[in-house]
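Figure 6 in text form: structure in, sequence out.
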């Protein structure tokens, strides 16, 4: 197994539960590391359980 594989900063990353304790911490960490294409779902009243791209 190759542990040296790195993702590109523009790779799409899905984070489930983006407003929860763990999900929001993961998103913050990814943003701090320069990842720009983070997609998350939110557990609020959003029509059709939509997902959103986070712009930073």
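Output sequence:
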């Amino acid at each position: 197994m190759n542990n040296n594989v790195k993702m590109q900063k523009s790779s799409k990353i899905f984070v489930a539960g983006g407003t929860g304790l763990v999900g929001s911490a993961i998103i913050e960490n990814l943003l701090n590391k320069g990842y720009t294409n983070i997609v998350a779902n939110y557990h609020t009243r959003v029509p059709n359980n939509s997902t959103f791209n986070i712009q930073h």
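Caption detail: The two ends are 33 Å apart (CA to CA).
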